[in-house]
Design a protein that fits this description.
Shape of chain A: globular
Largest interface: A-B, 43 and 43 residues
Oligomer: homodimer
Mean pLDDT of chain A: 93
Order of helices and strands of chain A: EHHEEHEHEHEHEHHHHEHEEEEH
Distance between the termini of chain A: 14 Å
Chain lengths: 345, 345
């Protein structure tokens, strides 16, 4: 399978949090494998964090960026820092490259991620998203922009991290029509439910989830079911021909679930999970996210703690279930790499 | 997404059993969707069954072929039947097309499937396999032949039918190294174990599986673990860099399992499954297929009856589990269609 011409792909890392730092770690660790298997090397020509943007057409060293962040440094310390240049005016130095958009979720405006993604696509750059917000706010627009500029977007990392939910639905369920979908799409709330089941309080369970580090800065985004609703929206837009908006998803979180309710459910052989579901309703879909009592020995009942799982039926492929244990954000970084390789090959 | 140029793809159906008849049914049912979504129409220019081969450069009607087989007819009745032409001399009328190789498994020589696949690849035709035997006997040779003739082979249908095991491992686990693999790869034996667990005898359970129709003509191929070993081999060749042969898999079937053993296991909170496993051993792999006691509430313990499932760990994507309910061969036909669309697009 050896390829003899190495392709150097200019990459801009937008955001230098867990996902993109994990990606840099994988690039360091898997450098030879990536070169051998895909004939590819990623040249990081630009980076951005909350301090601003920096560019280096010959590429920042991966280790340099990892060291900067290990020392709590900011992009503003890097050579090539562009004083006063706003995030979405980040200059793209070449005709084609890859933006990896892993900035924090902002569901009000989608920015800065949405603005920089638009800017990149108009310049003919491909975009890989780890940040859900731009897709939730502008799914169709981003797809149209990509098509109009002959470039691609990919976002398998936005839904259940390493579990290839979007890819399996879009690529492997060819010619099929979805009949129903149920999923546990948020590991933080699933972990909180486990802690509650062990007899803790909601407050303790949330603190524990934050300590372990998987909960977003604002854990209420997870707890209220918004994160799961965003993922369900991206899934349904990607596969089912769903034409509604995020507001068509009836979302209820786990904030009122108590240890007592879980104990009661247990007596009935059941447990409570935050289930995102899609069921057909006329010519469209009924979408919801809500705490749901499920059989303890069912597939979703067996998804525990840091697991996420989905189960769906289609007319051709009967019923398929998939789950992942994701205690660590590394699998999400790997999913970004998977998308990046797919796009450039 | 509308494509305005329809691509007519010449297709030869090698074998007209459940898989290719299911494919024809899907082509009839999904004709408009396939045209709209993929801009593709499959023109069946050749067919083969045990009576021989027939060709029609302008294409047989899908319904005609379905009617022929519904009436227990043979290819020898078709216009275009080639008297005395052996299977592997089936003439390919165009420069490029697609052979769908769904002939019966023959693990002695691989023929006629292996012979016709070689013949097709040398003519520059792509090949989609539903038949495992050619891959088990000539995995590397077929890949080299495809590369040498600038064509492709695909075989996602050979492993767990509709469950995209090969695709997820090859496409979605990019840059990852496999750490372990465990799977229930044969639904017939899993169904037999369920019937045994309900108190039946091995003989009754096998008859029931044959009656329902999923057991191959010779159910001992399933029962002795050979089918599962073949699938494990294809998986390991596809993803792990495994360089051994099928004989390196230590295969033991379920033929000696009794209802009593299952009842004993149950008392321990366990059940028995025919588990195909791969664990690292030095620089290579230890591969086996054998009846194994597993926790009843584990993922594989919960794969029951007509379900197949896999569970694997890698260095980047933690632990992923997937399963499918496959009572009907339709999902395998759909997997063939999925491969066909991937190859021609």
């Amino acid at each position: 399978m050896g390829r003899h011409v190495m392709k150097n792909v200019p990459v801009v890392l937008f955001g230098l949090g867990n996902v993109n730092l994990g990606l840099l770690r994988i690039l360091v660790e898997k450098k030879e494998l990536l070169a051998r298997t895909y004939g590819t090397s990623f040249v990081v020509t630009g980076v951005a964090d909350s301090s601003g943007v920096a560019v280096n057409p010959t590429g920042y060293s991966w280790d340099e960026l990892l060291l900067l962040k290990a020392g709590k440094g900011k992009v503003s310390r890097l050579e090539g820092f562009l004083e006063g240049v706003p995030h979405d005016q980040l200059p793209f130095h070449t005709d084609a490259g890859l933006l990896i958009e892993s900035s924090p979720v902002n569901l009000e405006t989608g920015d800065p991620g949405l603005a920089v993604a638009r800017h990149a696509l108009k310049k003919g750059w491909n975009v890989v998203f780890a940040n859900k917000a731009p897709l939730v706010l502008a799914f169709d627009e981003l797809h149209h922009l990509a098509a109009a500029n002959s470039c691609c977007i990919a976002y398998s990392a936005t839904v259940c991290g390493g579990l290839p939910v979007i890819n399996v639905l879009q690529r492997d369920m060819k010619a099929a029509s979805l009949k129903s979908f149920h999923g546990i799409l948020n590991a933080t709330t699933n972990h909180i439910l486990k802690a509650l089941e062990a007899g803790g309080t909601m407050e303790e369970a949330i603190k524990e989830a934050q300590r372990v580090g998987a909960a977003e800065a604002d854990p209420m985004h997870d707890v209220l079911g918004h994160d799961a609703a965003n993922k369900l929206y991206i899934i349904m837009k990607s596969f089912s021909g769903f034409t509604g908006t995020i507001h068509d998803i009836d979302a209820e979180g786990i904030q009122h679930i108590t240890a007592e309710q879980l104990a009661e459910a247990r007596k009935r052989g059941n447990t409570i999970r935050l289930i995102a579901s899609a069921t057909p309703e006329g010519n469209s879909w009924k979408l919801s996210v809500r705490p749901t009592e499920v059989k303890s020995d069912s597939f979703l009942g067996q998804c525990e703690g840091w697991e996420m799982g989905i189960q769906f039926e289609s007319d051709l492929y009967e019923s398929i279930s998939m789950k992942i244990v994701e205690e660590d954000p590394m699998a999400t970084s790997a999913a970004v790499l998977r998308d990046a390789i797919d796009i450039i090959n």
